[in-house]
């Protein structure tokens, strides 16, 4: 799930870099990649939790 | 390498009993050691101690393909190559990525933190490769080895906890750099605060130490 998301983010960053030079520079915006990776990890964590509790409810 | 049972899923661990690659769904964590379900079944039935030593090794040897711990260590001194030698290509890519990021960060900022992290990670890689090879070699002989790397990973809590806190750490680092790059605040001013990280890690380790049941 992370792979496609990363490609999209990096693609969009470079696209903005090319379309609006001076406003969005990849050299400035790269931390967005870190943020996206981090958010997807946190999201996976909560998704895993939800699946677990759902499974328990179904089990009962 | 992909999971032995799910060909489409990348492996996250190896069963320490049969050495097969396992994906997230297949791993069974027992007191910090990873097994696969068939091996656990065998162990519960009590077959393992007698029969697996008799018919196990032949099945295991073809999975392991003989990686030598010493060679793994030597090759591990070249970032990523130790993991490649062990056949862990995803891990190799991740190691190179982390190392490259740390190197470029230590060049970009004048904080000593990233230089320290660089050195630590550089020496972590060969040891990791060495213990992975050794663990698998001993695993083939039916000996379970708890390596210092395993113990280090246990320090960081369960896989899920690591996912949450790793994610939060990445978001925080990303936000700091983004705001710094957008000139919201001065990154160099913030960079002077880097020893705070060492203090935080120290406090966290102390807290961990206190929580541990005696």
Most residues in contact, chain pair and counts: A-B, 20 and 18 residues
Structural class of chain B: mainly alpha
Radius of gyration over C-alpha positions of chain B, nearest whole angstrom: 20 Å
| Average pLDDT metric of chain B | 77
Order of adjacent strands in the largest pleated sheet of chain B: 1-2
What's the overall geometry of chain B? Answer: globular
Number of helices of chain A: 3
H/E topology pattern of chain B = EEEEHHHHHHHHHH
Number of strands of chain A: 0
Write the element-wise H/E pattern of chain A from the N-terminal end onward.
HHH
Query: What's the total helix number of chain B?
Result: 10
Q: Fraction of residues of chain A in helices?
A: over 70%
C-alpha end-to-end distance of chain B:
39 Å
Q: Compute the gyration radius of chain A: what is it?
A: 17 Å
Amino-to-carboxy terminus distance of chain A: 31 Å
Quaternary state of this entry equals heterodimer
Inertia-based shape of chain A: elongated
Mean pLDDT of chain A: 78
Kindly estimate the percentage of residues of chain A that lie in beta strands according to DSSP: under 5%
Low-confidence stretches of chain A: none
**Strands of chain B, count:** 4
Structural summary, described in words:
The complex is a heterodimer of chains A (60) and B (214). Chain A has 60 residues and is mainly alpha-helical. Chain A is built from 3 helices and no strands. Chain A has helices at 2-19, 26-29, 31-59. In chain A, helix 1 (2-19) runs antiparallel to helix 3 (31-59). Chain B is mainly alpha-helical and 214 residues long. In chain B, the strands form 2 sheets. Chain B has a two-stranded antiparallel sheet. Chain B has a two-stranded antiparallel ribbon with strand order 3-4. In chain B, strand 3 (28-30) and strand 4 form a beta hairpin. In chain B, helix 3 (69-76) packs antiparallel against helix 6 (112-140) and helix 5 (89-108) packs antiparallel against helix 6. In chain B, 22% of the residues are buried. Residues 48-64 of chain B have low confidence and may be disordered. The A-B interface holds A 27-35, 37-45, 48-49 and B 160, 163-164, 166-178, 181-182.
